[in-house]
Amino acid sequence: MGNFRGAALLAIMATLGSGVAPALAETFQLQEATIADIQAAMAADALTSVELVQLYLNRIEAYDDQGPALNALITVNPEALAIAAEMDADRLAGEILGPLHGIPIILKDNYNTADLPTTAGSAVLAEAQPSEDAFVVQQLRAAGAIILAKANMSEFAASYGRLGYSSQGGLTLNPYNLGRNASGSSSGTAAAIAANFAVLGTGSDTAGSIRGPSAVTGLVGIKPTLGLTSRSGIVPLTLSFDVAGPMARTVTDAAIALGAMAAPDEADPVTLAPMAPAIDDYTQFLDVEALSGVRIGLVQNFRGGNAEVDALSEAAIAQLEALGATVVPIDLPEALESPWNYMSPAWDNEFKPQIEAYLATLPDRFPQNLTALIEASQAPAIAESATPVNPGRLESLEAAIETPGLADPALLYNLSHQLPMVRQVLLETMAANNVEALVYPTMACPASPIYTIEDDSSYVCSAADPYDAGYLANLSGFPDITVPMGYTEAGLPIGLSFMAEAYSEPKLLGFAYAYEQASTVRSSPTATPALPGETIQY
Prior knowledge:
- It is a single chain.
- This protein is an alpha/beta fold.
- The chain has a single domain (3-537), classed as Amidase signature (AS) enzymes.
- Helices cover 36% and strands 13% of the residues.
- The protein has helices at 3-17, 35-43, 49-65, 80-92, 135-142, 187-194, 211-216, 251-261, 307-322, 340-359, 370-377, 380-383, 391-401, 409-432, 468-476, 505-519; strands spanning 27-29, 73-76, 104-108, 146-151, 165-166, 170-171, 200-205, 220-223, 243-248, 295-299, 326-330, 437-441, 480-487, 493-499, 535-537.
- The chain has an eleven-stranded mixed beta sheet, with helices on both faces.
- The longest helix is centred in the C-terminal third of the chain and has 24 residues, at 409-432.
């Protein structure tokens, strides 16, 4: 028994001996614990950060390394317990860094960390340790977070047929169904937080990579406004769309993390936009009455991919209406029905120069350009290993060599005309229908089978691309928040997205919170049950 717990027990015994009735104890289960639960237990001296880290390490050993072997993590921080001890000492001294003080979190492995390798899922970069943290990692540490682990991801943040697979980390499994994927590319973070290896994590989103994984693992995921969070020190995919954001089991925890992450960064000029709000506490916008009297637009264009998803969305709409919202069916203009057409010019042309700029920050022993990266990825040590580079990802790297790059006329037209058009059409559509936000299933279909399963008749999806609706937030730069809206009969989580204009995170968080509190649909995956010692009482 630790000193904190011993002191707490003595205090209770003294109270009982005095004949004074003790206050009713608070109890929570670690499996669905929130930041508020944990901080309250720590404040009551019933839990330390060291104990909390050890509980999470126990779960990682039981469920990532053994048991269902989710394979969600690439690196576990060997100094996590020592850092936790320092956090405990600071707490005893009355020095609280911020709302995440002593809270273990998990980073997607494309976030630079000065004390751990950053691989972006590439075995070529297995030992690549940056000289400094990414800006948002600095922000999270300043708020008191402990970096517990780095999560697996689709290699260089693009899946190409193998969602959640990388040559460095292998294949991440979905804790709700081990035969279905955890989407991509923030697959490892999603599986880890759903399985409760930490209370929250981070992802990056270029084409749905926070929201897809969050939706299929029953999480809340925030794809922020382009410019609200910094990308400096995050391995790039397509900077015209890349954003960093939090993933958590509750809207409140995601809001706390967003407040820690969002800040202007001189190294990322898009964060210096004059309209960017200076908000460090997004929990102030969480209101169970947020949907009362609000008009919401239900996007119709991308429905019909899966009957269960559509039925769950109908139930979600009924819940929104019960909360006082007026839900208006909206058909987006035909120009937005094939959104990937507007993504491909930047996706195709930006990767090569942007990844080479990142590689140039690494020591010379690592590849300094895309050609060298491809050659290293094809070396026998990787190509003949148990986890070679995804063939589809390798082909895309080779194709990127041949692209015109940042001077491509198609890209310049895309950036100057097509993307502004998407933003304008979305704003005009919302204004014409007098709606505060757009809502839609985050994905048109449930999680698909993992790539090693060639035939699964239980998977039904008639959508051309189940991620289509989510691309609109990337194209426009607008924020999108996904929240759990239910489960299929097979127990697969489905997410509901709220999207609105740039820097509308405060109202979207309010909407998501009101819906979450009324629907209370989230449940823990059965593959990763509670372990002994995970009931916390204070």
